[in-house]
Amino acid sequence: MKLYYFIVNKNSGSGRALKIWYRVAKLLQERHIAYDVCITNGPQHATESVKNIIKKNNAKAIIAIGGDGTVHKIINELVGSKVPFGIIPAGSGNDFCRGMGIPLKYDQALERILKGEQKFIDVGNINDKFFATIVGIGFDGRVAQVTNQSQNKKLLNLAGMGSVSYIINVLKVLFYYKPTNVELKIDQKYAKHQNVWLIAIANSPFYAGGMMICPNAKNDDQFFDICMVKEISRWQLLRIFPSVFKGKHVNHPAVTILRAKEVEIVSNSPMIAHGDGEMIGETPLKIIISPSTLCVL
Q1: pLDDT-based confidence at 150, cuts 50/70/90?
Q2: Are strands 35-40 and 59-66 parallel, antiparallel or unpaired?
Q3: How far apart are CA 67 and CA 65, in angstroms?
Q4: Integer Cα distance of 92 and 208 in angstroms
């Protein structure tokens, strides 16, 4: 018998994922739908669970109940397999769901999964790790690192205001972060850039809870959209920051938008990188598009 396998990150949304799972389970039982569930204790647990499910060869789909971090862990085991992936959002940002048009309400997200309509999407590969949404390098990599370590993230998650934590830490990091010089190789073309604040390599428009860093990015066009911010003062950066929520920052002269299938980055001083909000490493980095490699419900 084919089963829906649910992987629930009990820490997502500061416990919201577990509450959502109990509601989802009730709906599944009412409709007599066959399922199994794994309540994970951490990232490694989720990874092992996906490996074991794939080996069983009876999965109708693997469904995450969590946020972008949960998505990140699961797709790194699912990419290239034929098992469809579903997501019921329960994190602080849920940017993968925003980019896919997946409803943020659990019952509507479940209904979409049960319809069984499949779409193959691109994913990115950075240092042999996959990401579904965006790699943020430099300033926003540092902001993501500080946010993941902060106490205010958990408190704001409980209040349903997870993206506010990111905004708070943008202001915090802005006061001490120093831009750096970068060598960029984009689809075999080299260029040098000075005083680079950040480089966002996007497979989806959204990160950090709805910021449209690359508003025209699509996860099925076999290209990354790239946003680079350089040669701007910290005060000017602060002034244009609110425009990111509507994608209007792309009109500023300090912002460059590019498109590519492959990107290599070398910097004078290390630039921290996150993928899907999870810390990945630091420069030098190589990022490649992997077209149509993840099946999503």
Answers
A1: low
A2: unpaired
A3: 7
A4: 9
